[in-house]
Write a structure and sequence with these properties.
- This is CDGP domain-containing protein.
- InterPro entries: CDGP_dom.
- The structure is a single chain.
- The chain is α+β, with helices and mostly antiparallel strands.
- It has one domain.
- Helices cover about 25% and strands about 35% of the residues.
- Strand 1 and strand 2 form a beta hairpin.
Length: about 100
């Protein structure tokens, strides 16, 4: 009986950890293309949301080189404008729904 209780408690704690680590249900992501990923956070009461874009950066290193992921985040939504050439960040201009 004691073993079943301890085993059940362990399973419940593991499931709870997975649920807590999951992204919010309102977050949406796009993968691939010219960027690694593009994810939108939850919608705020003022109509804004945070968008994070992961891109590759070329890093020369001696006789070789490699690509390093770089993450950029910023606010999107009403009243937030980005430079016209920053298409990786602003496309799509609407929120990415999950």
């Amino acid at each position: 009986m004691k073993i079943c209780t301890v085993g059940g408690l362990a399973v419940a704690l593991m499931a709870g950890g997975l649920i807590a680590a999951a992204p919010p249900a309102s977050a949406g992501c796009l993968y691939g293309g010219p960027v690694i990923s593009k994810c939108d956070g939850p919608l705020q009461p003022d109509g804004t949301w945070e968008r994070c874009v992961a891109i590759y950066r070329y890093v020369p290193s001696g006789l070789s080189s490699h690509l390093v992921p770089v993450n950029r985040c910023g606010l999107m939504g009403p009243g937030h404008q980005y430079p016209p050439g920053d298409f990786d960040f602003i496309e799509p201009p609407a929120r990415i729904e999950g």
